[in-house]
């Protein structure tokens, strides 16, 4: 079997499903377990740090681990960096068969820091019988030194190991999410998957096919494709001169806008149109035959006359938040508490005339479906819980498309990008 530690809502698991395999996920969060169950994924609700290792010995082919990143993430207090020497010591002890977790945990500033050592407890037990055949682990970039420590141990045990930082956008994810990756195998040379996308599209050459341009949010969400609506707020009131669709001080969701009939397609003005990029057959099958402009023509606009504002995504509410226009991938999405709310915001394209409002419309909160799509989950993925619980699951998940790139070589199956359709 494939054992998935800290399985979350199923990023790795959905990738395995697409690739024709299944895992058993260990996860403690109630709502993540409910999401996994609704998605048909095998799940044991438990604390990974307390669950015994013996049930897996003699039956585990692959091991996946994405320990919780809150202690290490830039979105939090990053006390994991303070605790890092303690975690390194725990890994070294566990690799030698000594369990000092309880003592070291008492000295940690953030109790979640020690969870990054848990995969070594399972690996040590499995290695006694020559398992697993392969390992795949993922975390925030600051955990890379710890992955290198894991790599040194695994090499002593006969694994080929690769560690490094990968950008999810290089693999077709509409998000520049950078993650520390560890890949290990007993039977093949461990190496990162070949990137399929680049910041600037690359032509085919004698050495092989070129890379497509990074997938933009507009392309992933289907905004501007054929007759799909795009978020539109008319200056000075709603459609037809009605009341303001988003009154002052409100933060309405795009889903609410749809229900109230406040969406309508508009044509992108010439000042924001870029030259279409050539696409191959696979891209056409996945995204349609439309010409691609900077915002996936037609673009979302905010006025009934000329475009003076355009949509961009602010990845959180912090002062240093990444703000990206729709014609680019999103920044790293992370959620967890209201201060990290992810919103669509209005960015100026040109100066409005004096007779039109000079201030940007109110921010609009991203929906769980939209956030899930930007993580490459299907549009109909069955997220469970309230909005906060859903956003927390989405922000902590591994993008399934990135996971599929990492897993396909171990499973010895081809990866078909057309299996990861994004927009509804």
TrEMBL record:
Keywords: Methyltransferase, Restriction system, S-adenosyl-L-methionine, Transferase. GO terms for biological process: methylation. Transmembrane segments: none annotated. Residues 278-303 are annotated as: Disordered. Residues 290-303 have a biased composition (Polar residues). InterPro entries: C5-Methyltransferase (IPR050390), C5_MeTfrase (IPR001525), SAM-dependent_MTases_sf (IPR029063). The keyword Methyltransferase applies. This is DNA (cytosine-5-)-methyltransferase. It comes from Streptomyces cathayae.
